[in-house]
Amino acid sequence: MGAALGMVLCLSACAELPKNVERPVSTALESPVDTPLALLVKQRREAAATRFDSGFLLVDGPPAAYGSRLALAQGAQKTLDLQYYSIHADASTAHLLRAVRDAARRGVRVRILLDDFHSTGRDAVVMYLAFEPNIEMRMFNPLAGARTSTLSRLVNSIDDASRIQQRMHNKLFIADNILGVTGGRNLGDAYFGKAANANFVDLDVLVAGRVVQDLSRSFDAYWNNERAYPVESLVKREELEKIRADAKAAAERERSTPEEQQADEGDGTKADPHGPRWDRQPMDLRTASFIWAPAAVMVDKPAKIPSDRSTATASERKAPGVEIPSGKGRTSGKARSGALQVAVNAAADGDTVVEGLLQLIGLAKKDLLIISPYFVPGPDMKQAFAAALARGVRIRVLTNSLASNDAPVAHVGYARHREELLKMGVELYELRSEQAGLGSAFGSTGSSGAPGESRSMLHSKGLVMDGQWVVVGSMNLDLRSQLQNTEIAVLIRSDELARVATEKIEIVMRQGSWHVGEKDDGLVWHAPEGSGLKDATTEPDASPSLRLMLKLFGPLAPDTLL
Question: Is residue 511 included in any domain, yes or no?
């Protein structure tokens, strides 16, 4: 064992990222006016008889989340741009990426930008798309080392830990520069309600019209950045073929019936032998009920993640500031209302997307509703909350309970601030991990499609302010999103969208979450409405061993790393 580890250390020490990499510059094409998707958006806007040129539809359940992306992949005629933190090589993603590949084969230009951290082992199979005609794929902020070993890649990067812990967390799926999806979801079974044991409760927004061009400009900034490495510069096709063959063989060994063995996805993922289900159906975009409203995109600049330390400029070593992408400057666009411009100016004063949101919170007058699965409030956030509370603003936060958190150690960074937040007047709700009956809200489902059959984990990221403003994005309200990871969000001024979002969030708070309160000798978790459960005086649904482990080791983890 010691000899094997020594060999890994030796081999990884020799690995390094390639130098003088060619990165041909490319940008989003002008929004077409004659493609089916462009004509559809035009028709939907004319039917709404609106003066606004950007439309929005909250995508709040697995069928819609998957179906919207599948519809974009199948409907694209000119371009597809995908930007994600992680893409898992599983059945849901295999079918979706097959639609992306088919688009490329009918002449669509496809660009895929993926953060490099999780693309090891079986999940490296998705990189094989880089060798398909009409598909370019780049890996952002890569780790050096063999794709077969997570350990060797991490060990190899020990001397560059500050860079590798900063990740591209943005999530975009854009078709023809006219329709796109952004929000909290990565691509994988657990994000589309198909994992057997645990699924994420998530939220996206389907975006149409002008604001998609701003999303595309943000994509271009990352795509053409020196931190984006073409797949071909990092891994050979032969290595990916071996990884794919190994993954396929492992998947075949896992299959228990002859029918499953015949249901081969061809890329090492397990197919559904029972034929099409909801995850195979595209959304009917012709019936999409868009809410048309003024909006703006907030996105961290790529240089928030520094380049190689030896070549980084002084400006790159500093937080570069949140960017409001626009071809004509901040005040451009017919849809910019005066109120939106004030909000945009406030957000643009922040150094990052999260800090921009804290500036936006400074405009709150009545009510602030926050969803953040990983909620670790730093000094700036607590100061923003205190100022808002002093103005009479009601603040409610929905986050994960210890039992529903897929990264339990991150819960420590929230729990250590919990009593202080309650004393300030912040209202706290923690998602119950087993939450039958919430299908009407965020639509979390188990692998069979029935609500509540698997553990639920909150992954939605958003904000509703004063019943007028909605923010949906990739960011958590924690120090990692604020200071390290790059993020993207859409800021929308719409009473109607705010009402819809508030109703959905409040259902989860009432019926699927523990309401945390104070009592004389500590905290109390009030049971969800109608659950029949008793109130709890310790972290509900969490095992004693998990509570003990976090109590012992949690204090050793600083907030900035959670």
Answer: yes
Helices (H) then strands (E): counts for the chain = 17, 21
Identify residue 450 by its one-letter amino acid code.
A
Q: Is residue 14 part of a domain?
A: no
Backbone angles phi, psi at 80, to 5 degrees: -135, 125
Enter the pTM of the model. Answer: 0.89
Nearest to 472 by CA among 96, 281, 211, 213: 211
Residue-by-residue pLDDT tens, the chain, 562 positions? 444 444 444 444 457 899 999 999 999 998 778 899 999 999 999 999 999 999 999 998 899 999 999 999 999 999 999 999 999 999 999 999 999 999 999 999 999 999 999 998 889 999 999 999 999 999 999 998 888 777 778 777 777 778 888 999 999 999 999 999 999 999 999 999 999 889 999 999 999 999 999 999 999 999 999 999 999 999 988 888 888 887 778 777 766 544 444 434 434 344 444 344 545 789 999 999 999 999 999 999 998 987 654 444 444 434 345 677 754 333 333 445 677 888 888 777 778 999 999 999 999 999 999 999 999 999 999 999 999 999 999 999 999 999 999 988 889 899 999 999 999 999 999 999 874 333 333 444 444 334 445 689 999 999 999 999 999 999 999 999 999 999 999 999 999 999 999 999 999 999 999 999 999 889 999 999 999 999 999 999 988 888 888 888 777 778 777 7
447-452: long-range contacts, CB 8 A cutoff, minimum separation 24: 447/189, 447/193, 447/194, 447/195, 447/196, 447/199, 449/193, 449/277, 449/278
Number of C-beta neighbours around residue 197 at 10 A: 10
Residues 269 and 314 in one domain: no
Enter the tokens of residue 20: 């003088």
Q: Are residues 99 and 242 in the same domain?
A: yes
Judge if 360 and 273 occupy the same domain.
no
Sheet holding 228-230, edge to edge: 228-230, 135-140, 109-115, 79-84, 172-175, 179-183, 204-209, 54-59, 291-292
Cα–Cα distances (Å) from 96 to 93, 391, 507, 533, in that order, read 5, 47, 30, 39
User: What DSSP designation does 536 have?
Assistant: B
Tell me how many domains the chain contains. 2
The domain in which residue 344 lies consists of 291-561
Distance CA 405, CA 546 (A): 12
Domain end: 223, 253, 285, which one?
285
CA-CA distance, 181 to 191, in Å (whole number)? 14
Q: Is the separation of the CB atoms in 397 and 428 below 8 Å? A: yes
Q: Are 176 and 37 in contact (CB under 8 A)?
A: yes
